[in-house]
Amino acid sequence: MLKTYQPKQKEVKREWHLIDAKGKILGRISTEIAKFLTGKHKPTYSNHMDMGDFVVVINAKDVTLTGRKQKQKVYTRHSGYPGGLKQRTFEQVISTKPERVIESAVSGMLPDNRLKDKRMIRLKVFAGADHKYQDKFTPSNYAKE
Questions:
Q1: Is residue 29 assigned to a domain?
Q2: DSSP string spanning 3-54?
């Protein structure tokens, strides 16, 4: 009788992927990042386990949007108190905290379950090209561009 292979948590090998966001479309790059964080690119993927890899995103300030979203996209949050609604446009967010744009898009693409926070911790986003994870990469595990 054949049995389905179930990987053990200690058998999970985490790799590092470097993604350059310069000139890329936000939604397209976010789906790619979410795929790496969940581990869906691995042949041993299992949806109830945390199989994902580390992802470092550089040049977050140079990410683009299509159409008129540059001016129309709005990020909304609420403090929970009356009158606590805060809204900021994409242009305001990208000028102050460009990392938040990518983090927000990727967070929205991950499933809302107990693994989401662990996956988001493995996402490292930097506004420019400089980052502190240079030593983690070997030429074989750069993300395909």
A1: yes
A2: ------GGG----EEEEE-TT-BHHHHHHHHHHHHHTTTSTT--TTS----E
**Torsion, Cα of 94, 95, 96, 100 (10° steps):** 10
pTM of the model: 0.88
Sequential pLDDT tens for the chain (145 residues): 888 888 898 999 999 999 999 999 999 999 999 999 999 999 999 989 999 999 999 999 999 999 999 999 999 999 999 999 999 999 999 999 999 999 999 999 999 999 999 999 999 999 999 999 988 876 555 555 4
| Total tally of structural domains belonging to the chain | 1
In which domain, by residue range, is 116 found? 15-65+97-137
